[in-house]
């Protein structure tokens, strides 16, 4: 098996949530076999912004789903959506 790049959209609970703090917690929550390549901020509407996370991980088991669940448990995160998964 190879590696995949997974793109996740992380929505905060509101406009007053500190996205930099969530970004740091996402990087800390990443399992050993997941490499965070990029975390960007995407404007949504009315001042609300989302984090877009690009992570490289092995194409095996439920690594991506488990990572998304860990992010979902971070305080200040409303939802996590897997936008794309591409084979490297």
UniProtKB/TrEMBL annotation:
<dbReference type="InterPro" id="IPR014717">
    <property type="entry name" value="Transl_elong_EF1B/ribsomal_bS6"/>
</dbReference>
<keyword id="KW-0251">Elongation factor</keyword>
<protein>
    <recommendedName>
        <fullName>Elongation factor 1-beta</fullName>
    </recommendedName>
</protein>
<dbReference type="InterPro" id="IPR014038">
    <property type="entry name" value="EF1B_bsu/dsu_GNE"/>
</dbReference>
<comment type="similarity">
    <text>Belongs to the EF-1-beta/EF-1-delta family.</text>
</comment>
<dbReference type="Pfam" id="PF00736">
    <property type="entry name" value="EF1_GNE"/>
</dbReference>
<dbReference type="GO" id="GO:0003746">
    <property type="term" value="F:translation elongation factor activity"/>
</dbReference>
<comment type="function">
    <text>Promotes the exchange of GDP for GTP in EF-1-alpha/GDP, thus allowing the regeneration of EF-1-alpha/GTP that could then be used to form the ternary complex EF-1-alpha/GTP/AAtRNA.</text>
</comment>
<feature type="domain" description="Translation elongation factor EF1B beta/delta subunit guanine nucleotide exchange">
    <location>
        <begin position="3"/>
        <end position="88"/>
    </location>
</feature>
<dbReference type="InterPro" id="IPR004542">
    <property type="entry name" value="Transl_elong_EF1B_B_arc"/>
</dbReference>
<keyword id="KW-0648">Protein biosynthesis</keyword>
<dbReference type="InterPro" id="IPR036219">
    <property type="entry name" value="eEF-1beta-like_sf"/>
</dbReference>
């Amino acid at each position: 098996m190879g590696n995949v790049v997974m793109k996740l959209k992380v929505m905060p609970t509101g406009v007053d949530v500190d996205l930099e703090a969530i970004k740091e917690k996402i990087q800390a929550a990443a399992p050993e076999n997941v490499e965070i390549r990029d975390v960007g901020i995407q404007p949504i509407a009315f001042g609300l912004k989302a984090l877009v996370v690009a992570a490289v991980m092995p194409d095996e088991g439920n690594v991506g789903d488990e990572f998304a669940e860990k992010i979902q448990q971070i305080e200040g995160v409303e939802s996590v959506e897997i936008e794309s998964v591409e084979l490297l």
